[in-house]
Amino acid sequence: MSTSERIQEIKARLAKLRAEELELESELVKLEGLNQREAAHVVKKDHLAPDDIRRYSRQLLVPEIGVQGQLKMQNAKVLIVGTGGLGSPCAMYLASMGIGTLGLIDHDVVDNSNLHRQIIHTEAARDVPKVVSAHTSLSRLNSSCRVVVHDVLLDSSNALDTMRGYDVVVDATDNAATRYLINDACVMLKIPLVSGSAVRLDGQLTVYNYNGGPCYRCLFPTPPPVETLSNCSETGVLGVVPGIIGCLEAMEAVKVITGKKQEEKPNMLLYSYTSQPHFRSIKLRPRKPSCAVCGDAPSITELVDYVAFCGSGPNDAAADLHILQDPSQRISCRQYSGVVHSGQPHVLLDVREKVQFDICQLPNSLNIPLADFDKRQQELTDIVAQANGRPIYALCRRGNDSQYAVQYIRNKLDYKECYDIVRGLLGWQADVDSEFPAY
Amino acid sequence: MSITVDVEFSGGLELIMKDKVRQATVSLPATADGKPTTVRQVILYVRDNLVADKPQLFSTENTVRPGVLVMINDSDWEVEGENDYQVQDKDKVLFISTMHGG
């Protein structure tokens, strides 16, 4: 056997073993779930075993932790909501440092587009439930950490039962509705909440509901308008940014567990790739006596419908808008494919932001982002003049902005031979060309 | 008499500003209708002069929209009296949009 054949053989064998490992972990997670009563019985440790002393020696030497801090960590129960970009490094560090019980909540499966930032998950775990994938990684890191998984979509019907009994909750989620839900449940259960978020190149970190400080609602009593909500799949995020914030969430959880956090005043930490300095800490208000949930006379005493409250839920992708009422102003991706194949002269105008246009585009398309239409109106006027009666087809990622573009060209530029391609490039990938890259 | 105030945008608010500016120095009269200028006037100035084309993404009902925190010299404006805080020359006002991603 040649060297390269042996390399191939080893790689194939490893791939098989990795798949098998995930299958076994999946069964283990199920069995451990059935065995909950036994698992719930955890004996509190009052001293460190010789193995623990060797394992955690480097942090036992840190005076702020020491033996007492390590024992507190080993007796602590931390719940991480979300095993994505924030939850991955947070869970890995907490397990490695010797947290006794780690709860994980996630109802998603691992997707290819998660892997650049969700470092607890591996290529082999694609399409596997995230809690199974995370359980696999954590049991490799530290088999003495008890990992309890909750494969549920957290909502007001299950949140209190799932979260009860934990000493600290880490918010590592990605949407406003779940953030309000977790906050309110933490207030009702009197659990400190370590909360982080990361988008694009920026991150934020706060500990809520702790030591006289504010809760999330003290700061944000009213949810933001739906059109200002953004998530990683729409606006993007550099992989390491949730990594930075997730690691800091693990740090804050340790400070709460060891009690060191009590020495701090309420604050919010901001991280930004662009600003100087990159980290800034700002002083926050104390708990608000008038807060609807943690105030002196709370009006919210049980969990509510958070999706209705925020106008948007945990699984909401950007909505498909119907801006153009007249169906004759829109054509399907298949119809547009017919236009291309028949060789019919036309103009294809892609109105996505340049950064998205650079990722992938259809042949012979012109790019003027919708946001630049006013600024680049002269260019648009020239395109219309050159089209000279031939159709202009507007295209974007999912078929929303392209409708605004058609409205603009029809109404402001008074050119009626302008049509929207329904569902945009996502539709093109689904209905016409499955090889076209989706993002 | 006029005062200058440094304004700064964070958490994605910079993206809705003209030329996506993160920082600007704005000049305002020290008084308006005989009363000292408040941070509300700074908010309205930003809405009318710095926001690119969707003012509702920054401000509603003559204050910041829900989901935006205002920090005056690195402290929560709640401690300073929110909209009615009287801005001083060289104050730093930071607007932070809460982020939900992760």
Automatic annotation (TrEMBL), chain A:
It comes from the Eukaryota. ATP binds at residues 85, 106, 113-117, 130, 174-175. GO terms for biological process: protein urmylation; tRNA wobble position uridine thiolation. Its cofactor is Zn(2+). Keywords: ATP-binding, Coiled coil, Cytoplasm, Metal-binding, Multifunctional enzyme, Nucleotide-binding, Transferase, tRNA processing, Ubl conjugation pathway, Zinc. Pathway: tRNA modification; 5-methoxycarbonylmethyl-2-thiouridine-tRNA biosynthesis. The active site is at 232 (glycyl thioester intermediate), 396 (cysteine persulfide intermediate). GO terms for cellular component: cytosol. This is Needs CLA4 to survive protein 3. It comes from Linderina pennispora.
UniProtKB/TrEMBL annotation, chain B:
The gene is URM1. GO terms for cellular component: cytosol. C-terminal thiocarboxylation occurs in 2 steps, it is first acyl-adenylated (-COAMP) via the hesA/moeB/thiF part of UBA4, then thiocarboxylated (-COSH) via the rhodanese domain of UBA4. InterPro entries: Beta-grasp_dom_sf, Mopterin_synth/thiamin_S_b, Urm1. Keywords: Cytoplasm, Isopeptide bond, tRNA processing, Ubl conjugation pathway. Acts as a sulfur carrier required for 2-thiolation of mcm(5)S(2)U at tRNA wobble positions of cytosolic tRNA(Lys), tRNA(Glu) and tRNA(Gln). Serves as sulfur donor in tRNA 2-thiolation reaction by being thiocarboxylated (-COSH) at its C-terminus by the MOCS3 homolog UBA4. The sulfur is then transferred to tRNA to form 2-thiolation of mcm(5)S(2)U. Prior mcm(5) tRNA modification by the elongator complex is required for 2-thiolation. Also acts as a ubiquitin-like protein (UBL) that is covalently conjugated via an isopeptide bond to lysine residues of target proteins such as AHP1. Transmembrane segments: none annotated. Its main location: cytoplasm. It is found in: Cytoplasm. Coiled coil: none annotated. The lineage of its organism: Eukaryota, Fungi, Fungi incertae sedis, Zoopagomycota, Kickxellomycotina. It comes from the Eukaryota. CDD domains: Ubl_Urm1. Gene3D superfamilies: 3.10.20.30. The modification 1-thioglycine is found at residue 102. Belongs to the URM1 family. There is a cross-link at residue 102 (Glycyl lysine isopeptide (Gly-Lys) (interchain with K-? in acceptor proteins)). GO terms for biological process: protein urmylation; tRNA thio-modification; tRNA wobble uridine modification. Pathway: tRNA modification; 5-methoxycarbonylmethyl-2-thiouridine-tRNA biosynthesis. This is Ubiquitin-related modifier 1.
